[in-house]
Amino acid sequence: ALKLWLSCEDIKLSNDIKANQNAIESATLNNTAVMEGDSEVEVDTDDTDLETVDNTINVLGAAEVVEAQRMVDEPPMVFQHRETADYASVNITSTLPCASYHEEFLSIPDGPLDHVSVSMIHDVFKLSGPDRQRLYQYWKGQYIKELLNKLYAKFDGYSARCKELKEATQEEDFCVLDTVDVIGMTTTGAAKYQHILQKIKPKIVIVEEAAEVLESHVVSCLTAATQQLILIGDHKQLRPNPNEYRLACEFNLDISLFERLIKAGTLHGTLEIQHRMRPEIAGLVCPSIYPTLLNHESVENYKSIWGISTNLHFFDHTYPEENNFDTRSHSNIEEAKLAVKLCEYFLNQDYSPSQITVLTTYTGQLLTLKSMMPKKTFEGVKVTVVDNFQGEENDIIILSLVRSNRKGISGFLKIENRICVALSRAKKGFYCFGNFTLLRSCCDTWKSILQYVEQIGKLNTSLELRCLVHPDVRTIIYTVDDFKKVPMGGCKRICNADLRCGHACTMLCHPKDRDHKYYKCKRQCENKCDNGHRCHNLCYMKCSFPCMVLVDKIIPQCGHEQEVPCYCDPQDYECQVPCKKELTCGHTCTSKCGYPCIKYCKVLVPKPLPCGHEALIKCSKGIEGHKCITEVLKVFPDCKHPVMLPCHISIDEVCCQEEVSRTLKPCDHKVVMMCFESADNYKCQHEVEKEFPNCGHSAMLPCSTSIDEVRCQKEVTRKLPCKHDAVMKCSENVDEHKCEFKTVKKFPKCGHSVVSLCSTPIDTLCCKEKVMKTLPCKHEALLKCFESVDKYVCEYGVEKKFPKCGHPITLPCNKSIEGLKCRKKVPRILPCRHEASLKCSVDVKTYSCRVNVQKSYSDCDHSITLPCSTHIGDCQEMVLKTLPCGHKTEAKCCTSVRRLKCRCTGNVTLKCGHSFTTRCGVTIGKCPELTIKEFPSCGHSIKLRCHESLHPTCTAKCKAKLLCGHQCTGNCSECYQGRMHKSCPFQMFPLPCGHPAKAQCTSMSFPTCTYKCEYHCSHRGCTHNCSEPCSPCKKPCSWNCEHYKCAKECYELCDRPRCDQPCPKLIQCRHPCIGICGERCPRVCRVCPNQREKFRKLCIGNIDAKEATRYIQLSCNHLFEVKRLDKLLDEQFQECSIVEPLMCPACKKHISFSHRYGNLIKRKKEMIKAWRSTMTQPVSTERQDTVIKKLLLNFVPAHVPESADTPLTYVLKKICRLLPPIFKNVSALLGLQQQCESLIIENETNQYSVLKDLQKCHPQISTPLQELFEFFDKTPPSAQKSEDVLYETMRIFLLYVISNILHVESQQSEDFTHVQQLTEKLKPGQPRLSVAVLTSHLDAMQNTAEKLNLKLNRFDATCLRPTKATIINGVWIICSSGHVFCKPRSISEASETKWQCPDCCH
Questions:
Q1: Structure confidence by residue, pLDDT tens digits, 1169-1190
Q2: Which of 158, 1011, 1136, 1280 is a Cys-bridge partner for 1395, taking CB atoms 3.0 to 4.6 Å apart?
Q3: pTM, full prediction
Q4: Which residue, 1331, 1386, 1388, is CA-closest to 961?
């Protein structure tokens, strides 16, 4: 058994079996296996799973496996295999390989094995390899026969069950279909379920696309019960396609039943209105293919195709076609590239891939197109041949016609049906590529179509594209490379569209995704955390917050300073400083400061072990269970070899690995092996020469390999039975060798000779000599000798006559004339009495007469010339018809006036007075005229349609410049008509120290500069932050030269003048230095040619100055003439100078160190220091009380009692809360606001009722007051807010005074006119007056009120003016006296020379 043999190595063998283990292994390597029944199977154990083989070739019963296993455990024995119905009785003497195995191989008689031959086998181990293979094949064949017999028995039952299932399924289908009114089927399904249709007996059959269905398929859909057949189709489109082309040519099987009936004159109806193509596309097939085709009104309202100048275009080219021999088709690579690029261009216009279809006329071109259209870009775009697209449509069709050759061959492009399908698939846009010069010369249909295309100007050798975003940009496409001019479907302008993040789009112009919903902004994210750290991600990514920037923070629990992530609270942070506490064992804790101290000390300390050695063990651990790993010398007791082993390993646990030399028995060869290995089981691999006993040849083999286990491989020359010599291996049998010598042999029947191998029998060959033979039809034919004349089909042409007409025809001898139709043309008289030359077999009753005759319409007096058999239809003559509106229009005679639309135009005047020219019958509901409308509140104007009303709020941009220097970002309504401006959203301008301010422009608290100080001297650099004072360097000043020397210390102002002598040094190129004495030499030469360009870039000013001109180079690398730079920097120090660091006049970069300008740098540092001290001065509390009282009394009239309970007093106190703080120190603003708020009545719930009471007394100021409250609530504190509140407060107070004056003043007086003019100037929307002008008007009105004896308090404007502390984001200035003050940037930029120190003036 196979299982027995393959598992021999896993069984405990007896001593005799072990003695022959080498023989077993060699037999296994030869891939042999002992099988039951004296059989043997060759198995490839490397490639076949043993379990699989066991399951596949298992012919043993359970009892036989038990017996086979027993054969291994017991001595060799003989057992009897009982005869069964499937196997013959075989006596087997089976022994395993043993010492008596080396006997000669048994041989089996040649030829196929049978039961008798197998019964002669007594020992399978004595069979040769080929005999074992033959035995295996016999055994496998017997097993397969048994399986096939069982399979055939099962197959009959399976077929019967399948037949029953099929009948049950058909009965179920019939029960379902019999209950419905309409059944939809394909023609294939109708033929397949014909038996069900016969049962259902449908009375009406409707066939869609009937012109493309074979007549036989239509007939298969009909039953005996059919009463009406309705065919729907277009016979001018594609015909049916028989599988055999010869059937279409010779028997007209490509003509459908639908087309045949129409041509036969059968009564039919034609649909003339098309709902698919726009009119210019429909003109391609009418009248060239369809005589009449009307356009539905829906196709006239299609939108134009985006990104291109025309909706219909024919691109003419001369690119040659290529022949594809594999597919027997044609392709045109350049034309395919044009089509693919145009398709990609339309996808970039934001068209959906499902709206575009690329058609071609050849399969070769289809494969070329698909290879050029990667799935990632063109997924969803349908690419197919024209024949597979009949009955379908799409918005945009791109057609590739392929054919372009010098021979003028157009192939099936001249077939009218295929032309019709190709040109009528597009709805909105159609673009065709082809060699139209070739097509015009090959086909009249193409000639008619191209004539129409030329008339409308759509045929050209180029294509014009138009940018959808920039319509003025147009691109002409001549070749494929021209599409590079529109890389993203637009043009080469930058998009620059505003994104939602505030950045501008940096892509090239792209019509796709104009809303930028899918665009990812690649700019750096500008978001910052609360501490001013910038996000490191790109703009489109999610911000990397919480902020992970490491900043130095002090841990409150331990006081250590640590680098902690910005977002992390030091209270929750675990300090990472190593813990320095001492454990109970005396060692220092190895944990971190923020973690609990460790319980078990992990310090390694030496400890003595029981063996006497020391080991490094953790301090907290004992020595119990520790294994000593110290290596010691130990000796094996048997061989006395020494070995180094860890102390804890016993010598009995290891084997000696020492290499020793031993002599094998019985060969006496010496071999080197491990000491623990036994020589008895060792196989000697020493190669020795051994002689084969049968042939005497010798071979080099391992000493342990027996000569009987191998075969002699030496090549020898021997005589074969055929007397030829052959070179073969010594072990091969002469009788089994096939002679490869070529000989001439004769066929016994015919006597012809043939050259073949000597070993090939002549009976297995066929004579292929060509001879002339007489066929049964008496014709002769040249056939191969072995071919029979009975099976040959005679192709000899003979003349045959049709039995009915007697006309002759030449046909192949084997072809019968029955079933053929006579095609000879003869004159025939048609039923209409006209004569026609027809084919003899044509029936005149079904023939359509083509003689042109004059026919008259029954409904009108018009007539038309048509073929005799053509139905006259409706009259298409163009006549003048009167419409219901009274106008006349030209239309077809058959068209009803109800379906016509009047195209006359006339003038219509609307109620608003605008007149328009419109078509007759069209009414204009809303006036679309653009008019300019003005907002009454502000005076701004806007363009709107006449019927559109003004929006309540004006959205015109406010162009005012704020105090901070930025332009206002609000609109007219947000800024209250320019009176109170929207809060500035921009960042604050740089600080006076020159560093960026990490605060918003509206911030009322001055930010502290956290940047590192940039100042340094020649000795060292400053290590402090910019906001901290620099530590003075007290080393001697290093500004020394051979002409002057400074005697001061480094931090003091130098006491020496500037040296103007030239530098005496030579630079690296050995030319004289162009610098000044005592300064750093410029790193550029004005003489060397290779540095002239660098000199031109760095030099600021006159680059062609004289050679004696001296230059100085700043830290920013800019070069200046020394005299010019001296003048520019000295001009920065005047009576009033701006507080800022000394900067380069060209790039405004900080000059941190310079010997020549060191005094200027130090003076600038002192200015910045004075500015910082000013910002931290204490506040005068006496000043606060005075100002608050003035604020309260400004609006309290004399006739109103100063009581907090009166409504007017409440409102005026509310105004005091709105007014800006006026103190020098910014930190005092919060304290002033708290004091002001303490004066406000606690109960603020009656604010609206109070305003209502105030409106009764003074209605002219109630609305401004309400706006002032609203502005205060929604606007954060800022200098601009203070200025706006001041202006609005003065304006309201002025209106209040004016209202009192107008109440008592006579209208005839001059003062009344002046007051009214002033009132107009104060209305919203008028230009804003300056505070000075407003103050003068206020003083004049208050004087007028005093003349009229009005008891009004005077307005003290001086206490309301914002001071230097309130203008945070302005320009800081210092005067010669050391006073620091601030000016708004809008004022400072306009009048820099008019600065006056307010403290000095006071």
A1: 887 777 665 544 444 445 444 4
A2: 1136
A3: 0.41
A4: 1386
Average pLDDT, the chain: 78
Query: How far apart are the C-alpha atoms of 1365 and 1378, rounded to whole Å?
Result: 16
Greatest Cα pair distance in the chain: 159
The rounded distance, in Å, linking the Cα atoms of 422 and 420 is 6
Q: Is 1178 exposed, middle or buried (0-12, 13-18, 19+ CB in 10 A)?
A: exposed
Mean pLDDT of 382-388: 94
Q: How far apart are CA 262 and CA 63, in angstroms?
A: 83
Question: Rounded to 5 degrees, what are φ and ψ at 771?
Answer: -135, 160
Can you name the residues that pair with 238 across neighbouring β-strands? Answer: none
Do β-strands 394-400 and 426-434 pair in parallel, antiparallel, or remain unpaired? parallel
Q: Which of 697, 699, 698, 672 lies closest to 684 in space, CA to CA?
A: 672
Q: How many CB atoms lie within 10 A of CB 1286?
A: 19
Q: Which residues are paired to 554 by β-bridges?
A: 561
For the record, the structure tokens of 975 come out as 């800024």
DSSP-derived 3-state class of residue 415 = coil
Task: Give yes or no for a contact between 413 and 443, defined as CB atoms under 8 angstroms apart.
Answer: yes
Integer-rounded Cα radius of gyration of the chain: 56
Q: Give how far the C-alpha of residue 154 lies from the chain's centroid of Cα atoms, to the nearest Å.
A: 57
Integer angstrom CA distances of residue 994 from 1009, 1165, 1278, 1372: 10, 11, 22, 12
Give the tokens for residue 736.
């089994």
Helix (H, G, I), strand (E, B) or coil at 618: strand
Q: 858-861, long-range: CB within 8 Å, 24+ apart, which pairs?
A: 859/893, 859/894, 860/893
In whole angstroms, give the CA distance from residue 33 to residue 48: 13
Tell me: cis bond preceding 279? Omega within 30 of 0 counts.
no
- For 203: left if phi > 0, alpha if psi spans -120 to 50, otherwise beta; the answer is alpha
Q: Helices H, strands E: what count in the chain?
A: 32, 52
If you count them, how many residues does the chain have? 1402
CB-CB neighbours of 940 under 10 Å? 17
Q: Where is 797: in which H helix or E strand?
A: strand 797-801
Long-range contact pairs involving 3-9 (C-beta distance under 8 Å, separation at least 24): 3/54, 3/58, 3/60, 3/65, 3/68, 4/34, 4/68, 4/69, 4/71, 4/72, 5/32, 5/33, 5/34, 6/33, 6/43, 6/45, 6/50, 6/53, 6/54, 8/72, 8/96
Does residue 16 register a pLDDT over 60? no
360 bridge partner residues: 385, 400
Using an 8 Å Cβ cutoff, are 358 and 381 in contact?
yes
H-helix or E-strand containing 801?
strand 797-801
**Could you tell me the pLDDT band of residue 100, with boundaries at 50, 70 and 90?**
very low
Please name the residues in contact with 1162: beta carbons below 8 A apart, sequence gap of 6 or more: 1051, 1053
* Across 1010-1039, average pLDDT: 82
Phi, psi of 986 (to 5 degrees): -85, 170
pLDDT digits (tens, 9 = 90+) for 547-582: 888 888 888 888 888 888 888 888 888 888 898 888
Q: Return the SS3 of 105.
A: coil
Q: What is the pLDDT of residues 348-369, one digit of tens each?
A: 999 999 999 999 999 999 999 9
Label residue 1353 exposed, middle or buried (CB < 10 Å: 0-12, 13-18, 19+).
Answer: middle
Is the link from the previous residue into 546 a cis peptide, with omega within 30 of 0? yes
SS3 percent helix, strand, coil of the chain, rounded to 5, is 30, 20, 50
Counting Cβ atoms within 10 Å, is residue 1118 exposed (0-12), middle (13-18) or buried (19+)?
Answer: buried
Rounded Cα–Cα distance for residues 396 and 425 (Å): 9
Tell me the torsion sign for CA atoms 559, 564, 569, 571. Answer: negative
Round to whole Å and give the CA distance between 1364 and 1380: 8
